[in-house]
Amino acid sequence: MAEQSMQFPQSLLQQSVKEVVESMLSSVDYDALKVQATTEKLIEEILKKMVGLKIPYKVMASAVIAQKLGAGVHNACSAFWDNTQDGLVMFKYENATLFCVVNVFFAAV
């Protein structure tokens, strides 16, 4: 029996990450004293959402939240994997006081 290849569900995962980030950060103002806890909680909620989807992937997430001061920020990610089964979701969010960049890596099991 031939092994079937599973296509990476990019749009489902992109939408799921977007929903979590927007729901958590839409009413948050940048606070230097709370940003570490906010970032940790954001990653925790993203991972919970991914586990809840019951997808056959190992999931790794990172997030950066910074005060919006007009400085440029560049983000790059790279991986050596199977491009048909594994994937990456990158999502950028900003409001009046902060910006956030989230990277979620998915490796097929």
Automatic annotation (TrEMBL):
Gene Ontology terms: cellular component: cytoplasm; cytoplasmic dynein complex
**Recorded GO terms, molecular function?**
dynein intermediate chain binding
- GO term, biological process aspect, one: microtubule-based movement
Q: Which InterPro entries match?
A: Tctex-1-like (IPR005334), Tctex-1-like_sf (IPR038586)
Q: Which PANTHER family match?
A: DYNEIN LIGHT CHAIN TCTEX-TYPE (PTHR21255:SF4), T-COMPLEX-ASSOCIATED-TESTIS-EXPRESSED 1/ DYNEIN LIGHT CHAIN (PTHR21255)
Q: What is this protein called?
A: Tctex-1 family protein
- What is the superkingdom listed in this entry's lineage? Eukaryota
Q: Which CDD domains match?
A: DLC-like_DYNLT1_DYNLT3
